[in-house]
Amino acid sequence: MIEYQTQRSFTFNQLADDCLRAANVWKDIGLRVGQTFGICGHNSYEYMVCFLSGIIIGAIAIPMRGTDTIDEFKRTLKEREISLIALSGEKLRQIKSHDFYDNIMGIVFGSESDHQNETHFWVYENLISSTRAISEDLIHEPKDVMQDICLILESSGTTGLPKGCMFSHYNLVSLVTIGSLVYNRTAEDIVSGHSYMAHISGVNQLIMSINNGSQLVLHPVFNLNTLFEAIEKHGITALSAPASVYMTLLKAGTEYDISTLRKLICGGAPLPKGCAQQIAHKYPHFEDFRQSYGMTEMTILIAFGHYGRRDYESVGDPTPGNRIKVIDCTTGEVLPPNCNGEICVTGPTLFKGI
């Protein structure tokens, strides 16, 4: 993994060792099986470690964005009952003057993490360097892998405030299993890690890169110019991005050399009709360019364009194990092909509820 902004690089062995060390840190400061814990900050190696290590000991991760406002941060703490949290030095500085600060404790990381005098936050670098890795026999084994929750992510849903979507260990294992069948990525790929880890697409990029052994180029926040710059500098080969990124490439192009890009997935919103074909024509080195359909509640995976079919206007087939039907919104009856209606989907990646 490479942090694009700092150019720090880490191996998978380092990640595994630091996660096992951080798991011991979480246990020492009181994190227990089934307890929620927060992670807040911009994308970084430390964010990854704190996120994965809490799940390793059976706790429930609540990732948050570094760009969250104080009100959003406070609401998440209250609604998810978070008392233990890992956060960036920048976020810690923002919250210190607020009344809820005294109700939380945990780990502080990042370039502004020089907080040696904090009474209830400990500096990540000091903890990791002075703590042994947890023994593998203490890694949590869920009693019910299908039902035990390990992650809660926010989804905007269709009405009201964002909702917390609960995911089980089985959901994440299913993401890895199914994703490995549809993404067409290998250990030779270099993947753009520009999505927030507090979003299902960011979790997806992280977990799939670990599973495939792909190098992940991690961006602290999403920025279109630095995305294209990183593609040129690091030779990124695989990109999953919203339609807006591809429309920018179609209409304006980029001054950067993006000729290394080979494997591309468009999601989040459909491309306007005809645009996908135009993009494929303009950038013939996009050898695997597909549209997809997903949502947070399905751990992102619902349908993917079929590799090699080059049907650019379709979101493709249901992902393995998932089932889709289209029903009449009034009667609830299942509709035949080529009819408009409400999409219903279920399968192993279906979340456990709000």
TrEMBL record:
Gene3D superfamilies in the cross-refs: 3.40.50.980, Luciferase, Domain 3
Database matches in InterPro entries: AMP-dep_synth/lig_dom (IPR000873)
Subcellular location: Peroxisome
Every AMP-dependent synthetase/ligase domain range: 5-353
Pfam families given in the database record: AMP-binding
A GO molecular function held by the record: CoA-ligase activity
Keywords: Ligase, Peroxisome
GO CC term (a single one): peroxisome
Family: Belongs to the ATP-dependent AMP-binding enzyme family.
Protein name: AMP-dependent synthetase/ligase domain-containing protein
Classification of source organism: Eukaryota, Metazoa, Ecdysozoa, Arthropoda, Chelicerata
